[in-house]
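Subject: for your reference before the review

Hello V.,

The reviewers asked for a structural picture of the protein, and I figured it would be easier to keep everything in one thread rather than splitting it across files. Below is the amino acid sequence we used in the manuscript, unchanged from the supplementary table.
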Amino acid sequence: MPARYDPAMAFSLLSKLTDIPLAFVDTETTGASADFGDRVIEIGIVRIEGGAVVARHQQLLDPRRRIGAGITALTGITSAMLAGQPTFAEHWPVVAPLLGGAAVVGHNVRFDLSFLAGELRRAGLDILQALGDVPVLDTVRIARKRFGRGGNGLQVLSRRLGIAPTTAHRALDDAETTAGVFAELLRTAGGWDCPLCDAIAQQGGPMGLTPAGGRSSPLPLELEEALEMGLAVMMDYLDANQRQTQRKISPLSIRRKNGEMILVA
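And here is what came back from the structure prediction:
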């Protein structure tokens, strides 16, 4: 188990990554946006201290709402699997020490942080008060600095870097893959001996637990990049009879209707 750290501890920009606890986090959710009321259904965390894994954690969570067939097709998680699981609020005392006192790292991490912040608000907590003023690192931002925009999905990027990806769209597996991608992306910058300031520079500047200017939560990476760059994407489509097919679409915009997110394509 990880050592206990004070959430209010200060991080020195000159500290090497080996001297900083790192919490790689990934979530699976009921949908694409915390702003539209979607919830966390699985959390995965890999905590690294001194360049070595000290804790791995995975937990299914009851979102207290229906799981759509599309999410089951994507993740393999069913409503039956979530029945009897703890809610996020009930499970938070287990998660808190795994994230506490650590720099938070994720792939398109703003997406996961938006869901964590939403779940904490429902539990009567503020993410900044719960975790403190910790550094945030994003492997997507590092990859974009290195390779440009587009093609930075976790599975694609991991293969590009020579890392065998684990099962896609399961929280712990994706957190494990993210840790491997992070290590490989920073290998030329000193690896685990890279100072925190250099790691932050690799992603183009600092990030916090909450977005600057109060911007709304982001979309899943592939959809976000498709909208930004006018790219087509392949999507799994479920019809009214639950038949699954693949369709190539050109996303145009995101709209809100009756409390749901609508993709216009």
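For the response letter, the relevant points are probably these. The chain is about 35% helix and 20% strand. The two ends are 46 Å apart (CA to CA).

Happy to draft the paragraph if you're swamped.

O.
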